[in-house]
Specification:
Layout (H helix, E strand, L loop, with lengths): L1 E6 L4 E8 L3 H15 L7 E9 L4 H16 L5 E4 L3 H14 L4 E3 L2 H12 L19 E2 L5 E6 L2 E11 L3 E7 L11 E8 L8 E10 L8 E9 L3 H18 L6
């Protein structure tokens, strides 16, 4: 099963895949893709819903590679993938690495649309920021009283321990049982710092680094380098001021 639709008002392409796509259906899907992409301007965004799709065979993977290459040639900008089945997700991820198409993974179409709407919002206060390209912030090690909460692939997590913090992001420790859900690029929704001196504001964050068994102190944990997205100037200034005050009291720290 497949459904491919272009929204010319938002310049956004929607691809929904389900079940096992056999070769005749894949041929139809390629033709439908070409028709719908022709309605859009270069720089279009893609919401790819593969929650109900099963892993495909070698020929199907080759067709996926060609579809990715076609999308890149037509100027696709942001790709948000809605996932559920891990084997399907890993197969699509391997194809993405081969073709060089960048994507982020979320748990629902609604989350995908919210993310794309925010990245395209004309109000700079709401736009997704990549602070690593703007400036650097100081980073401090923090204790067990610093934790965070967020939603990962639809699962709500709380009291997740933070090891260090900056206004740009943090490094946190996740139990090893979540290893199959985290990888570079995955988004953490409703992310909030759980500390009385820090802002209780829900933001979106992105995993930018994953370390398995990253220290002797946490041999069974997963270390996640997390970048804060969709932050306001107030949030950034508040966290940065907290870090600088901490820095003044505790001595030298590393640059973020």
């Amino acid at each position: 099963m497949f459904k491919i639709l272009a929204n010319t008002e938002t310049n956004r392409l929607y691809i929904t895949l389900g079940g096992h796509l056999q070769e005749p259906e894949r041929v139809e899907a390629v033709a439908a893709l070409a028709r719908e992409v022709a309605k859009l301007a270069p720089g279009f965004d893609l919401v790819n819903d593969i929650r109900d799709a099963y892993p495909t065979n070698d020929q199907g993977v080759e067709d996926l590679v060609r579809m990715h290459q076609f999308l890149l040639s037509k100027g696709v900008r942001h790709v948000v993938r809605v996932t559920k089945l891990l084997l399907t997700e890993y197969q699509f991820e391997r194809v993405s690495r081969e073709t060089g198409i960048s994507f982020v993974a979320v748990a629902s179409v609604e989350q995908a649309e919210r993310l794309l709407d925010r990245s395209m919002d004309p109000d700079p206060a709401n736009r997704v920021r990549d602070w690593s390209k703007v400036r650097k912030f100081r980073r401090i090690p923090v204790g067990s009283d610093h934790t965070v909460q967020f939603t990962l692939k639809g699962e709500e997590l709380a009291q997740v321990m933070v090891r260090d913090l900056s206004a740009q992001g943090c490094f946190l420790v996740l139990p090893e049982r979540f290893a199959g859900l985290v990888y570079e690029g995955v988004l953490l929704f409703d992310f909030m710092l759980e500390h009385h001196d820090l802002p209780s504001i829900r933001i979106t964050a992105k995993v930018v680094r994953v370390l398995q068994s990253f220290s002797e102190l946490n041999p069974c944990g997963i270390g996640l380098g997390v970048q804060f997205l969709s932050t306001s100037a107030q949030f950034t200034q508040w966290v940065d001021a907290y870090v600088m005050a901490f820095y003044g009291l505790r001595g030298p720290v590393q640059e973020a």
